[in-house]
Specification:
Blueprint: H1 3-15, H2 18-25, H3 29-43, E1 48-50, E2 55-57, H4 59-86, E3 91-97, H5 99-104, H6 106-117, E4 121-127, H7 130-139, E5 144-148, E6 157-172, E7 193-197, H8 201-210, E8 215-221, H9 223-231, E9 237-240, E10 252-256, E11 263-271, H10 277-287
Parallel strand pairs: 3-4, 3-5, 7-8
Antiparallel strand pairs: 1-2, 5-11, 6-9, 6-10, 6-11
Helix pairs in contact: 1-2, 1-3, 1-4, 2-3
Pfam family, one: LysR_substrate
GO cellular component, one term: protein-DNA complex
Organism: Yersinia intermedia
């Protein structure tokens, strides 16, 4: 039995008229009669009582009508969901991110925009260490990621810069350099102990400009953990300036670095040849977003 049989039966059951039903279905009356008889043979039950003037459902026909309608409704729902999935309107997207992406607000903005446009797509977000993101992306265990650059990109992965700011210095409030009214020269940090975040680009560039090898005392991971250790007096840190307006901890002050700005960027990473329509929709949204500074 196929869908054609179900549609034929339901049409006759609703019209209780074979000629009218055949015309509605676009088949001849004998063809429709043969289809109904075929259904009855498969079910081994009479579905209609027919006279020259009337057609009535049998008790078995009434029960079968309920199930046949439910089957067609489920099929139509499945077809609709399949079509919407093909357009990326339903499904699921796994997003990984480093904590600093959330401080910029780019993660929140992109997720909210996408949810407003595609409310039936589930977005799952998870904070991850930087070193875990690329393998998970290549393995397909996450679909997109927001990271702080630079990161090594394999040929299978593309990136798009979403936000940009500069690095600054975080110091304990009682530190001598915190009292300075001018920007801090890189060489003035040569004798300091450093607490470093996951992304060490800022410190590397400060050390290069100041011509010193940095003394690293701790690498606690997240930016909040870095600033906590600065607040405890364990050292100073080179961190993105976005934190100046987003995290306020007692005993921490921020100062600008003298010289050309050391740029800090957050980028979205995604597979270069992505096939999932849901993920492609999010990628297209991100590519259409101008980098914020």
């Amino acid at each position: 039995m196929d869908i054609r049989h179900l549609r034929s039966f339901i049409t006759v059951a609703e019209n209780l008229h074979f000629s009218r039903s055949a015309e509605q279905l676009g088949v001849s009356a004998p063809t429709l009669t043969a289809q109904i008889q075929e259904v009855e043979r498969m079910l081994q039950a009479r579905l209609f009582n027919r006279t020259k003037r009337t057609v009535h459902l049998t008790p078995a026909g009434e029960i079968f009508l309920t199930e046949a309608r439910a089957t067609l409704e489920q099929l139509e729902r499945a077809i609709n969901v399949g079509r919407r999935a093909g357009r990326g309107q339903v499904g699921r997207v796994e997003i990984g991110y480093v904590g600093s992406a959330a401080f910029f607000g780019v993660l929140q903005e992109q997720v909210q925009r996408f949810r407003n446009k595609w409310p039936d797509v589930m977005l799952n977000t998870k904070e991850l260490p930087t070193e875990q993101i690329m393998p998970l992306l290549e393995e397909g265990r996450i679909d997109l990621a927001f990271v702080r650059t630079p990161v090594h990109l394999p040929l299978s992965v593309s990136s798009h810069v979403m936000a940009r700011d500069r690095f600054c210095v975080a110091l304990p409030a009682d530190h001598a350099l915190s009292k300075m009214s001018t920007d801090i020269l890189p060489r003035a940090l040569s004798n300091e102990s450093f607490v470093i975040p996951e992304q060490g680009l800022g410190l590397r560039e400060v050390a290069r400009r100041g011509k010193f090898d940095p003394h690293i005392v701790s690498s606690p991971g997240t930016l909040v953990a870095v600033l906590t250790q600065v607040a405890l007096g364990m050292g100073v840190a080179i961190i993105p300036s976005v934190l100046i307006n987003t995290i306020q901890l007692p005993n921490v002050v921020f100062r600008e670095i003298a010289g050309p700005a050391i740029v800090s960027e957050v980028a979205a990473l995604f597979r270069r040849h992505e096939r999932l329509p849901t993920v492609r929709n999010l990628i297209e949204q991100m590519l259409d977003t101008n980098c914020s500074a």
